[in-house]
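User: Good morning. I'm curious how iron/sulfur cluster would be positioned relative to this chain. Could you predict the structure with it bound?
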Amino acid sequence: MNAVSPPASRRHDSAQARWERLPVIRTGEDYIASLKGRGTRLFLFGELIDEPADHPMIRPSINALRATYDLAIEDPELATAHSPLIDAPVNRFLHMPTGPHDLVMKNRMQRRLGQITGTCFQRCTGLDTLSVLHSITWDIDAKHGTGYHRRYLEFLKEAQRRNVLIAAGMTDPKGDRSKRPAEQADPDMFLHITDRNEDGVFVRGVKAHMTGGWNQHWICVMPTMNLGEDDRDYAVVGMIPGDAEGITYIYGRQASDTRSMEGGDMDQGNAQYGGQEVWVYFDDVFIPHEHLFMDGEHEFAQEMVARFTAYHRASYVCKTGLGDVMVGAAATIADYNGVDKVSHIKDKLVEMVHLNETIFSSGIASSHEAKPLDSGIYMNDGMLANVCKHNVTRFPYEIARLAQDLAGGIVATMPSEKDLENEEAGAIIRRFLKGRDDIPTEDRMRILRLIENMTLGRNAVGYLTESMHGAGSPQAQRIQILRGMDVEHKKWHARKLAGIEQA
Ligand code: SF4
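Assistant: Good morning! Here's the predicted structure, ligand included:
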């Protein structure tokens, strides 16, 4: 395909010019239109793709984000909120939490979107980034007398007015893990400032496996870990338009992703929706001062990461929506097989629901326990958020195992949709790949393909691997739980009850 590069005029364009390229988005259709003709450089299978929004492998991930716009129209109570900042209703993904209720509603919306899409709908990282920036810019200003919070509020107002999407560019490739950013042999192993002029700064580096990175209008680049004095150039937070000059995207593969290019819709399992991770290379990309929210204040990097993970680890209740789909698929195949009344089948479904609701309970409890920060924004409880995410690193695997148990080995050995369509092979398949007489073979195959999709195929990325590593791998949560568990206080209670004299 022919590739179009962004015009060089975008190299140093102003903050205002960057906003003026973006429309006001109201509907899912508006959103899809907003992605077209951007002239981005995106590699997929070794080729630059001219119009990624129309590519059959990419489109399902765009549909998943589109669902966040559609839901706001279908169920405004759930998916919109009143913004005091612009005194108007906004998509809940752009609303800053002003109390525990906002965070609880966010979790309910996330579960619903998981049920609708059966995958990662990619918009929560942007919300959680905006939420963190509210308090971090406030705190940096309080210490250094900078003007980041005002800039941030101006950005947020415009983002709310235009109803745009923001991707979180947090994960650097990291290179030699024993070395700090400034010590790496390749200085670009962590994204950093390479140059500056009177209007802004230039950054170079890569942000890895960025969720929905191409599908969004802005990318917020930010540090991935704590930084020291020598790492000042790496302490940078800024908003960059997805179509800025100097950005190259490389699309991440997912299991069975080319099934979307084979024609038909059955073998995909979930033909409508998918997730997306991309590698994004920033080659001296410009950020105007108005869109810069940290510039060298390295001592705030660790706190920024900690607050982001506190928000985002509770956002992982999204996986309970996918868990609802898994339970539904397992119950449906049991039904189609004529074994839905068998006691051990019902017991396995109960186990799946128990695990799924355990995830939800820790996430929603974290939101109910939210407390205000100095900037006035609310943040959910960090300990419970880490417990939620830690549950997510384990329970979906057990839920998926039980779904495969109920599905039977056929989930991984079934003939293709094209064989089903073939006159001779199709007749054999329709006759013998049957369960209950009154259930068409094709329906049985479709529900099995959905289970395959979510446990082995394309959306197993969203349901399993992302559950393991997204928002930090399991050990990252254990470290946070260790830091917050206050074992001395627990020992004091134990000694008191045991009648041991307290020091
Ligand atoms: Fe949202 Fe879940 Fe995807 Fe994170 S993993 S962006 S919380 S849907």
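Residues 120-122, 124-125, 211, 315-316, 318, 466, 470 surround iron/sulfur cluster (CB under 6 Å). The first strand starts at residue 41 and ends at 44.
Let me know if you'd like a different ligand tried.
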